[in-house]
Amino acid sequence: MNILIVHAHPEPASFTSAMKNAAVADFTAAGHSVVVSDLYAMGFNPVASAADFGTRGNADYLNYALEQRGNGDAGTLAPDIATELAKLLAADLVIFSFPLYWFSVPAILKGWIDRVLVSGKTYGGRRIYDQGGLKGKRALLALTTGGRDYMLSEGGIHGDIEDILKPVLQGTLAYTGMTVLPSFVGFHVPYLKQEERAAILENFRGHLARLDQLQPLSFPKLGDFDAQMKPLAK
Ligand code: FAD
After folding, report:
1. Per-residue pLDDT reduced to its tens digit, 147-158
2. Structural domains in the chain plus CATH codes
3. What are the residues whose beta carbons fall under 8 Å from the beta carbon of 144, sequence distance 6 or more?
4. Residues 161-186: what's their mean pLDDT?
5. What is the CB < 6 Å shell around ligand 1?
């Protein structure tokens, strides 16, 4: 299996980076091909702009998604986008590795999503959800938090972590057609004892070893909606 790990932590010795390193080691030992996009180490540019396009369908007014389509078809996307898109399209499994920042992904990872999930290549028109351009690929979030598990659970002060991450889980991964596996969350990691963190790392390895047994999350299916995407009467 081809695995892409998109890693977004500024500190190579961080616990999140240790999780990423464990994933690389275990998947490689199991015979899989692993590619890592270490966004901070790469100095990845997260800012979507006109500079992302070698040609312009409309030079006077920037419609980013339309230019993504035209430049994606013409092979004139900026080289860093083209490189990341090729890694994504070659992957069977994509793991996003990051610390939770403000109930979301770090800005550098949000920018990777904005720029690399190219309209036309990964989604477009009715090519969304179970018809999305990345259909057949599996995706997994592997994240760490400062908050405790009960704070980020249903009924907890912040609510359930998978509700918090809906913009990524549904609005990005499921939307582009990926099969979304249950996230692995290392809660409260900066405040734990070393041995408690070591236990989280082992649990993460177990989660990765059991990927094939995990029940994917459930998302809308296009067949339940009409041409205007209104729900069909049941
Ligand atoms: P680190 O601080 O890097 O690591 C913790 C400890 O683990 C360190 O002592 C490190 O040496 C040690 N360690 C490294 N490797 C290992 C290993 N192999 N085994 C054992 N220990 C090891 N949290 C929330 O809950 N909700 C939020 O909305 C939120 N927003 C944030 C926004 C910002 C801008 C920032 C900076 C933080 C935010 N946080 C939030 C907190 C953040 O999510 C956590 O601080 C982060 O997830 C902790 O993970 P880390 O990898 O950075 O830990």
Report:
1. 999 999 999 999
2. 2-224 (3.40.50.360)
3. 15, 16, 19, 98, 99, 100, 185, 186, 187, 189
4. 98
5. 9, 11, 13-16, 18, 99-103, 144-147, 189-190, 194, 197-198, 201
